[in-house]
Amino acid sequence: MMRNLYYKGEHSGGFRRLSLFLLGLLVLTVTGCDPDKSDGTVKNSTALPIDDRLNLECANEGIYLETCVLDDSSNPYRNSFIKEFDPNGPDDQETKFDQVEELTPPGPEGAKSRFYFWATALARRSSGENQFFTAVALHELYTSGGGADGGSPNAREQAIKAYRSVLENYFGSVTFFSTCDFLNPSPPEPELFYSVIVSDLTGRNLVDPPGNTSFTKCDGTVVPVAALDTLFPDDDPVVSDFMAREAMGEWGFSYDEANGLVFVSNFP
Q1: Rg of the chain over CA atoms, in angstroms?
Q2: How many domains does the chain have?
Q3: Domain of residue 193, residue span
Q4: What are the pLDDT digits (tens) for 106-132?
């Protein structure tokens, strides 16, 4: 079953930086190849980055056509197999959405790991879905560092590049959401999946980033969804809105906030 992990997690407030320090030794299993002689099982554990700084292997890491993330020694997934959805596979097949949930810490602490995961997926398979979730992870990383009050400049600039790439290279591409994920409080049965255009989601994230909310899974679990800070910070939110629209206009796009749609600009 394919699950969408759009914006999972919540902020941990003032306790966050202490948590990052204490969690610095966190180790999760990414792939398996080395035998553990103590119990005969196969294990290969890699420490996942959970800080909010971002050093780039190359200028366009995580952007369409650039594969340098596969050479980035900071990338814990560079040798991992990403399970893209197989339309000929079983309905209950495990996919990259299951993988990213299993392999990365939830919430802000997992933003950097999610960036490497989705950038690796994009380097291996070019798709609007992979580019969009790379952008979202970068956006989360910038937000988790404090946004305009200390967020990673590299994460901010790279998030803008990644969102621009969605619009320029994958306009009209889709991802899939679950009916259970987004209908509250009584999820329908059976669980159904429907397509959502990632360029429209990109317009919203740039112009009007979503605030804190939650969704309810089919099993009734309520999952918090963290807010995203604007990538175009200004003391006046209205100015931030227009700065985002100006950037989209320079790229050749416009955003219809009332309907949540992005359009290609047609100049006279």
Answers
A1: 19
A2: 1
A3: 13-264
A4: 889 999 999 999 999 999 999 999 999
